[in-house]
Design brief:
Layout: H1 18-41, E1 48-53, H2 59-71, E2 79-83, H3 86-100, E3 105-108, H4 119-124, E4 126-128, E5 140-144, H5 145-148, H6 151-160, E6 172-176, H7 183-186, E7 196-201, H8 228-231, E8 237-241, E9 244-245, H9 253-259, E10 267-268, E11 276-279, H10 284-293, E12 299-304, H11 316-332, E13 334-341, E14 347-354, E15 362-368, H12 371-388, E16 395-399, H13 400-403, E17 408-414, H14 430-437, E18 440-449, H15 452-458, H16 477-484, E19 488-493
Parallel strand pairs: 1-7, 1-8, 2-5, 2-6, 3-4, 3-5, 6-7, 9-10, 12-18, 12-19, 15-16, 15-17, 17-18
Antiparallel strand pairs: 11-13, 13-14
Helix pairs in contact: 1-2, 2-3, 10-11, 11-12
Amino acid sequence: MAIKFEPPVIGSEAARHHAQAAAGNIQVTTAAIAELDGVLSGVRSSQRILLKAAAGAGKSYALRRMVASALQHDACGRVGVVAFKNKQITPLAEGLGRDLGREKVCLLVANGRAVDVPESTKAAAVVVEAAADVPSSAQVIVATTHKVGGFGTGHLRKAIGNAAGGDYLFDVLFVDEAWELALHLYRKVKNLAPVCVGVGDVGQLPPIDSGQNPWRGDRRYNPYRAWPTKFEDDPQTWSRELPAVWRPTAAQLPLWRSFYGDWDSLDCVASPGDRSITVNGLRGPAAEVWRQVATGVPTLVEVDGLEEPEAADVDMPLLLVVEMWLDRLLGAGFTLDSMHYDDAGLPVRPVQVRSDKPTGDHLITVLATRNQAVDDAMDMVDRLTAKHRLPDGVITASTVDSWQGRTNGITVALHPLSGASALDEFNSAFGRLAVTCTRATHGLLMVSRAGLTDLLANAPARPGTPLGEPGTRQLPRQTHQRILQTFARGTYTV
């Protein structure tokens, strides 16, 4: 049966691209650097500087700029760069080492984890497991909050002493992916420096759902929520938004804007035509699906006529339809074409990646919310890999939670509300849907059982303040409806 796609209700609006878009992030980062310089010079009183980023905004580049600038100030001799997860600190250390020189950057990892650090990182930065081994030449110490907080602080201070200011271990503390770090964990490191710079994606999954407040005192206090939300209204907090994203296609920008709707502006570096997907030799429904995905417009296909699933979010009948479409695509082969940009957002050269010679990020990632659903998806990936003799890097599967912070060419995702009878705390979580929708650089295919429109029209109303605190981070049905209005939609009947 042919699939007829209806265009998005909310289409592309005016936006800046290339250097005009990137300039917005450069200007905000420059303003943050000026604020930090003022703090180090003693003429500003900010204790926290927050850079809010959307997914794929180039926040790591902004953080590295701020680190380099801070170290040029006479009052700054050493900085700490921390994050919650090990997988976040390794690329940070590598990038900082390349920027500043290997002897100036030390990656402090957990005991026994040095063997897991890539050789490229070891070539760019000094890697140690014990505080006693941190070299005195290190001006940048990169570690998890667990490693430098608590007892780790004492070990480091004994090994290398306090920084230039004399009273603190670091002159500045940088926190990457700040909105993933819980308040109670931040409190273990916040006194390591007189000023803290937090950079991160406000659309990531929070440490736990902020509506699940285990604190029985003040309802505004929740030690398990993301720490910046505690200080955003504090007069000693300087906070700005990075107004441009590098990851999405121009056609995906309305979807990005739907997740960051309260921002003053959001533009994307990629201009129309900068990215494309090419696939030849397909026929039937698979050709229609991939032709639509190749436009770059977020695509939703609702599948009707399926057998009943094991559970709403463990749905083998739906996954078998996805496997059929992926089988056709992988059998035909495809290419991802991109424009490479310099740091200012200016187009430099075209780049092409073929499915038979993948490089860089995974070309296709299949995302689901539950572990069992991902187990089924991984079995599907294994079957397709064996059948088509695919090299590593073509296709993988993951839970949404595990894939945050990652990037891929094409995302194929099971909609969190597929088959649901109501909106609950898990399936309507803001961060989970935001991460699902913002991983792809080239194409997004969302699949669901038929009935999303009826579900959202008839589901009981529920509260939702996705970016505000206090309150929940579950999306109300109206927000779900607005997000789906940015998708091209079609129905496939089995």
